[in-house]
Amino acid sequence: MAALPNRIGTTRPRRIIVAIVAWFVGILFALPLLWMLSGSFRTAGDMFASVYPLSPAILVPQTFTLDNYTTLLAGPFGLSVFNSVFVTAVTVVVGLLLSAMAAFALAQMKFRGANVVFAVIVLSFLVPFDAIAVPLANVFRDWGLSNTYVGLILPGIANGFAIFVLRQFFLGVPGELAEAARMDGLSWWGIFWKIYLPLSRPALIGAGFTLFLFQWGAYLWPLLVGTSPSVMLGPIALANLATSQQVDFGAIFAGAVLLTIVPLVLLLVFQRQFTASLASTGSKG
Protein backbone atom coordinates (compact mmCIF):
# COMPACT_ATOMS: atom_id res chain seq x y z
CA MET A 1 0.00 0.00 0.00
CA ALA A 2 2.93 2.33 0.58
CA ALA A 3 3.82 2.25 -3.11
CA LEU A 4 0.40 3.51 -4.21
CA PRO A 5 1.02 7.24 -3.45
CA ASN A 6 4.32 7.09 -5.32
CA ARG A 7 2.63 5.57 -8.33
CA ILE A 8 -0.05 8.25 -8.30
CA GLY A 9 2.63 10.90 -7.81
CA THR A 10 4.58 9.71 -10.84
CA THR A 11 1.48 9.27 -13.04
CA ARG A 12 0.22 12.82 -12.63
CA PRO A 13 3.37 14.54 -13.99
CA ARG A 14 3.31 12.18 -16.96
CA ARG A 15 -0.28 13.13 -17.72
CA ILE A 16 0.61 16.81 -17.47
CA ILE A 17 3.55 16.33 -19.85
CA VAL A 18 1.39 14.37 -22.30
CA ALA A 19 -1.29 17.07 -22.15
CA ILE A 20 1.27 19.82 -22.80
CA VAL A 21 2.72 17.92 -25.76
CA ALA A 22 -0.79 17.26 -27.13
CA TRP A 23 -1.70 20.95 -26.88
CA PHE A 24 1.56 21.95 -28.54
CA VAL A 25 1.02 19.54 -31.44
CA GLY A 26 -2.60 20.65 -31.74
CA ILE A 27 -1.55 24.30 -31.95
CA LEU A 28 0.99 23.46 -34.65
CA PHE A 29 -1.74 21.79 -36.71
CA ALA A 30 -4.12 24.69 -36.08
CA LEU A 31 -1.73 27.47 -37.12
CA PRO A 32 -2.07 26.95 -40.91
CA LEU A 33 -5.87 26.84 -40.54
CA LEU A 34 -5.85 30.03 -38.47
CA TRP A 35 -3.63 31.72 -41.07
CA MET A 36 -6.04 30.62 -43.80
CA LEU A 37 -9.00 31.96 -41.80
CA SER A 38 -7.20 35.24 -41.15
CA GLY A 39 -6.20 35.54 -44.81
CA SER A 40 -9.83 35.19 -45.91
CA PHE A 41 -10.60 38.49 -44.13
CA ARG A 42 -7.55 40.40 -45.42
CA THR A 43 -7.23 42.81 -48.28
CA ALA A 44 -4.86 42.05 -51.16
CA GLY A 45 -2.24 44.48 -49.88
CA ASP A 46 -2.35 43.04 -46.37
CA MET A 47 -2.20 39.38 -47.43
CA PHE A 48 1.54 38.76 -46.92
CA ALA A 49 2.48 41.86 -44.93
CA SER A 50 3.49 39.91 -41.80
CA VAL A 51 5.00 36.85 -43.46
CA TYR A 52 8.53 38.25 -43.76
CA PRO A 53 9.76 38.98 -41.23
CA LEU A 54 7.40 36.57 -39.48
CA SER A 55 5.41 38.10 -36.63
CA PRO A 56 2.32 37.20 -34.53
CA ALA A 57 0.39 39.78 -36.57
CA ILE A 58 0.18 37.16 -39.32
CA LEU A 59 -2.88 35.76 -37.54
CA VAL A 60 -4.64 39.12 -37.18
CA PRO A 61 -5.80 41.08 -40.25
CA GLN A 62 -4.68 44.70 -40.20
CA THR A 63 -7.72 45.63 -42.29
CA PHE A 64 -10.79 43.42 -41.73
CA THR A 65 -12.97 42.93 -44.82
CA LEU A 66 -15.74 40.61 -46.04
CA ASP A 67 -15.15 41.44 -49.70
CA ASN A 68 -13.49 38.08 -50.36
CA TYR A 69 -16.61 36.21 -49.28
CA THR A 70 -19.14 38.50 -50.94
CA THR A 71 -17.25 38.46 -54.24
CA LEU A 72 -16.81 34.71 -54.09
CA LEU A 73 -20.43 33.85 -53.30
CA ALA A 74 -21.73 36.31 -55.90
CA GLY A 75 -19.94 34.35 -58.63
CA PRO A 76 -20.15 30.71 -59.75
CA PHE A 77 -18.41 29.44 -56.61
CA GLY A 78 -21.68 29.57 -54.66
CA LEU A 79 -23.28 27.17 -57.16
CA SER A 80 -20.30 24.84 -56.91
CA VAL A 81 -20.68 24.67 -53.12
CA PHE A 82 -24.36 23.80 -53.55
CA ASN A 83 -23.38 21.10 -56.07
CA SER A 84 -20.89 19.65 -53.59
CA VAL A 85 -23.50 19.58 -50.83
CA PHE A 86 -26.11 17.96 -53.08
CA VAL A 87 -23.80 15.36 -54.61
CA THR A 88 -22.29 14.46 -51.24
CA ALA A 89 -25.69 14.20 -49.50
CA VAL A 90 -27.09 11.86 -52.16
CA THR A 91 -23.89 9.81 -52.10
CA VAL A 92 -24.03 9.39 -48.32
CA VAL A 93 -27.75 8.48 -48.17
CA VAL A 94 -27.77 6.04 -51.11
CA GLY A 95 -24.31 4.69 -50.30
CA LEU A 96 -25.20 4.01 -46.67
CA LEU A 97 -28.35 2.13 -47.66
CA LEU A 98 -26.53 -0.05 -50.21
CA SER A 99 -23.52 -0.60 -47.94
CA ALA A 100 -25.71 -1.52 -44.97
CA MET A 101 -27.71 -4.04 -47.01
CA ALA A 102 -24.53 -5.62 -48.40
CA ALA A 103 -22.92 -5.72 -44.95
CA PHE A 104 -26.01 -7.33 -43.40
CA ALA A 105 -26.13 -9.99 -46.09
CA LEU A 106 -22.43 -10.79 -45.62
CA ALA A 107 -22.71 -10.87 -41.81
CA GLN A 108 -25.98 -12.73 -41.21
CA MET A 109 -27.20 -14.42 -44.38
CA LYS A 110 -25.01 -17.46 -44.90
CA PHE A 111 -24.65 -18.32 -48.57
CA ARG A 112 -22.10 -20.07 -50.76
CA GLY A 113 -19.21 -17.83 -51.74
CA ALA A 114 -19.84 -15.21 -49.03
CA ASN A 115 -16.18 -15.23 -47.97
CA VAL A 116 -15.04 -14.78 -51.57
CA VAL A 117 -17.40 -11.85 -52.04
CA PHE A 118 -16.16 -10.24 -48.82
CA ALA A 119 -12.53 -10.76 -49.87
CA VAL A 120 -13.21 -9.03 -53.20
CA ILE A 121 -14.85 -6.12 -51.37
CA VAL A 122 -11.85 -5.77 -49.04
CA LEU A 123 -9.47 -5.81 -52.00
CA SER A 124 -11.58 -3.19 -53.79
CA PHE A 125 -10.92 -0.48 -51.21
CA LEU A 126 -7.22 -1.32 -51.17
CA VAL A 127 -6.94 -0.29 -54.83
CA PRO A 128 -6.49 3.51 -55.15
CA PHE A 129 -9.42 5.04 -57.01
CA ASP A 130 -7.06 7.30 -58.97
CA ALA A 131 -5.61 4.19 -60.60
CA ILE A 132 -8.92 3.40 -62.34
CA ALA A 133 -10.36 6.91 -62.64
CA VAL A 134 -9.18 7.64 -66.19
CA PRO A 135 -10.45 4.43 -67.87
CA LEU A 136 -13.66 4.63 -65.83
CA ALA A 137 -14.17 8.22 -67.00
CA ASN A 138 -13.91 7.03 -70.61
CA VAL A 139 -16.65 4.47 -69.91
CA PHE A 140 -18.86 7.14 -68.36
CA ARG A 141 -18.37 9.38 -71.41
CA ASP A 142 -19.48 6.51 -73.66
CA TRP A 143 -22.59 6.13 -71.47
CA GLY A 144 -23.37 9.84 -71.77
CA LEU A 145 -22.85 10.50 -68.06
CA SER A 146 -20.27 13.27 -68.37
CA ASN A 147 -21.30 16.57 -66.76
CA THR A 148 -24.24 14.98 -64.95
CA TYR A 149 -25.01 14.53 -61.27
CA VAL A 150 -25.42 10.80 -61.84
CA GLY A 151 -21.91 10.55 -63.24
CA LEU A 152 -20.49 12.37 -60.21
CA ILE A 153 -22.45 10.30 -57.68
CA LEU A 154 -22.21 6.72 -58.99
CA PRO A 155 -18.54 5.95 -58.17
CA GLY A 156 -18.97 7.16 -54.59
CA ILE A 157 -21.96 5.08 -53.50
CA ALA A 158 -20.14 1.72 -53.59
CA ASN A 159 -17.43 1.90 -50.94
CA GLY A 160 -15.69 -1.26 -49.77
CA PHE A 161 -14.47 0.26 -46.51
CA ALA A 162 -18.00 1.34 -45.54
CA ILE A 163 -19.23 -2.22 -46.14
CA PHE A 164 -16.32 -3.57 -44.09
CA VAL A 165 -17.10 -1.26 -41.13
CA LEU A 166 -20.80 -2.13 -41.12
CA ARG A 167 -20.19 -5.87 -41.52
CA GLN A 168 -17.85 -5.89 -38.54
CA PHE A 169 -20.51 -4.15 -36.46
CA PHE A 170 -23.28 -6.53 -37.58
CA LEU A 171 -21.11 -9.50 -36.63
CA GLY A 172 -21.09 -8.17 -33.05
CA VAL A 173 -24.90 -8.20 -32.82
CA PRO A 174 -26.09 -11.43 -31.12
CA GLY A 175 -27.37 -13.85 -33.73
CA GLU A 176 -30.16 -14.91 -31.35
CA LEU A 177 -31.99 -11.69 -32.23
CA ALA A 178 -32.25 -12.67 -35.87
CA GLU A 179 -33.19 -16.26 -35.01
CA ALA A 180 -35.96 -15.14 -32.65
CA ALA A 181 -37.28 -12.70 -35.25
CA ARG A 182 -37.28 -15.42 -37.91
CA MET A 183 -39.26 -17.69 -35.60
CA ASP A 184 -41.80 -14.89 -35.17
CA GLY A 185 -42.23 -14.76 -38.93
CA LEU A 186 -40.18 -11.66 -39.67
CA SER A 187 -38.51 -11.59 -43.08
CA TRP A 188 -34.81 -10.84 -43.62
CA TRP A 189 -35.74 -7.36 -44.78
CA GLY A 190 -37.77 -6.83 -41.62
CA ILE A 191 -34.89 -8.05 -39.45
CA PHE A 192 -32.51 -5.70 -41.21
CA TRP A 193 -34.82 -2.67 -41.16
CA LYS A 194 -36.41 -3.06 -37.70
CA ILE A 195 -33.64 -4.67 -35.63
CA TYR A 196 -30.15 -4.29 -37.09
CA LEU A 197 -30.40 -0.84 -38.66
CA PRO A 198 -31.63 0.94 -35.49
CA LEU A 199 -28.80 -0.70 -33.49
CA SER A 200 -26.10 0.38 -35.94
CA ARG A 201 -26.22 4.17 -35.56
CA PRO A 202 -22.53 4.54 -34.50
CA ALA A 203 -21.38 2.29 -37.35
CA LEU A 204 -23.62 4.13 -39.82
CA ILE A 205 -22.09 7.45 -38.77
CA GLY A 206 -18.57 6.06 -39.22
CA ALA A 207 -19.41 4.61 -42.63
CA GLY A 208 -21.22 7.81 -43.56
CA PHE A 209 -18.11 9.86 -42.78
CA THR A 210 -16.12 7.55 -45.04
CA LEU A 211 -18.52 8.18 -47.91
CA PHE A 212 -18.70 11.89 -47.11
CA LEU A 213 -14.93 12.47 -47.07
CA PHE A 214 -14.44 10.45 -50.26
CA GLN A 215 -16.98 12.55 -52.15
CA TRP A 216 -16.47 15.95 -50.52
CA GLY A 217 -12.72 16.02 -51.07
CA ALA A 218 -12.74 14.36 -54.50
CA TYR A 219 -10.79 16.25 -57.13
CA LEU A 220 -9.62 13.97 -59.94
CA TRP A 221 -13.01 12.39 -60.66
CA PRO A 222 -14.98 15.68 -60.84
CA LEU A 223 -12.17 17.09 -62.96
CA LEU A 224 -12.63 14.22 -65.44
CA VAL A 225 -16.43 14.08 -65.67
CA GLY A 226 -17.81 17.31 -64.15
CA THR A 227 -16.15 20.37 -65.70
CA SER A 228 -19.38 22.08 -66.81
CA PRO A 229 -20.15 25.17 -64.67
CA SER A 230 -23.66 23.85 -63.95
CA VAL A 231 -22.37 20.70 -62.18
CA MET A 232 -18.89 21.80 -61.12
CA LEU A 233 -17.98 20.85 -57.55
CA GLY A 234 -16.30 23.00 -54.92
CA PRO A 235 -12.71 21.66 -55.14
CA ILE A 236 -12.64 22.22 -58.92
CA ALA A 237 -14.07 25.73 -58.59
CA LEU A 238 -11.51 26.49 -55.87
CA ALA A 239 -8.64 25.39 -58.10
CA ASN A 240 -10.01 27.53 -60.94
CA LEU A 241 -9.61 30.66 -58.81
CA ALA A 242 -5.89 30.54 -59.61
CA THR A 243 -5.27 31.39 -63.26
CA SER A 244 -2.15 32.08 -65.29
CA GLN A 245 -2.99 35.81 -65.27
CA GLN A 246 -4.01 36.28 -61.62
CA VAL A 247 -4.06 34.48 -58.28
CA ASP A 248 -6.61 35.94 -55.87
CA PHE A 249 -5.32 34.60 -52.55
CA GLY A 250 -8.10 36.26 -50.57
CA ALA A 251 -10.78 34.48 -52.60
CA ILE A 252 -8.84 31.21 -52.45
CA PHE A 253 -8.57 31.41 -48.66
CA ALA A 254 -12.27 32.28 -48.37
CA GLY A 255 -13.22 29.36 -50.61
CA ALA A 256 -11.00 27.00 -48.62
CA VAL A 257 -12.68 28.16 -45.40
CA LEU A 258 -16.15 27.53 -46.84
CA LEU A 259 -15.17 24.03 -47.98
CA THR A 260 -13.60 23.27 -44.59
CA ILE A 261 -16.50 24.42 -42.42
CA VAL A 262 -18.90 21.65 -43.49
CA PRO A 263 -16.73 18.61 -42.57
CA LEU A 264 -15.46 20.42 -39.46
CA VAL A 265 -18.97 21.04 -38.13
CA LEU A 266 -20.08 17.47 -38.90
CA LEU A 267 -17.03 16.03 -37.16
CA LEU A 268 -17.60 18.17 -34.07
CA VAL A 269 -21.28 17.16 -33.90
CA PHE A 270 -20.76 13.42 -34.48
CA GLN A 271 -17.26 12.92 -33.08
CA ARG A 272 -18.44 10.69 -30.22
CA GLN A 273 -20.38 8.37 -32.52
CA PHE A 274 -17.52 8.37 -35.02
CA THR A 275 -15.07 7.29 -32.31
CA ALA A 276 -17.48 4.57 -31.20
CA SER A 277 -17.76 3.29 -34.77
CA LEU A 278 -13.98 2.98 -35.04
CA ALA A 279 -13.87 1.11 -31.72
CA SER A 280 -16.49 -1.36 -32.95
CA THR A 281 -14.47 -2.19 -36.07
CA GLY A 282 -12.62 -5.17 -34.71
CA SER A 283 -11.20 -8.34 -36.19
CA LYS A 284 -14.36 -10.43 -36.16
CA GLY A 285 -14.86 -12.56 -39.15
From TrEMBL:
Compartments (UniProt record): Cell membrane
Keywords, alphabetical: Cell membrane, Membrane, Transmembrane, Transmembrane helix, Transport
Residue intervals of the ABC transmembrane type-1 domain: 81-270
Family: Belongs to the binding-protein-dependent transport system permease family.
Pfam families: BPD_transp_1 (PF00528)
Membrane topology reported for the UniProt record: Multi-pass membrane protein
UniProt xrefs under PROSITE patterns: ABC_TM1 (PS50928)
Protein name as annotated: Carbohydrate ABC transporter permease
